Amino acid sequence: MGFFSISRIQVVAIFGSIFLLFLIVELIRRQQLKEKYALIWLFISFFFIIVASVKSIIQLIANLFGIYYAPSAFLLLLIMGIILILLQFTIILSKMKKRIKILAQEVALLKLKSKLKKK
Asked: Is residue 57 predicted with pLDDT exceeding 50?
């Protein structure tokens, strides 16, 4: 096992990360995913391509967290990435809810003004 020895889990992680990157780019190209929402996805996919490609990075992260089996650290990073994405979407959802409330109030006021003008 030399410098370029790659485990099976590492190959799966690399291909999975590259697939995610191509999927995100394709969704942006088809305009099914807005660029501003895709930034965190792109960041996470690039991060995982790098982490999966360089074995010493995942080993370093595993050592920092006190994890004996390095691929478990990769799984931990995946979960943390998912939590970041969920947090981003929760923030977006909260902003949209506030905007919808304001728009509904404005529509109600416009309807009231329209009724008052008809009388």
From this structure: yes
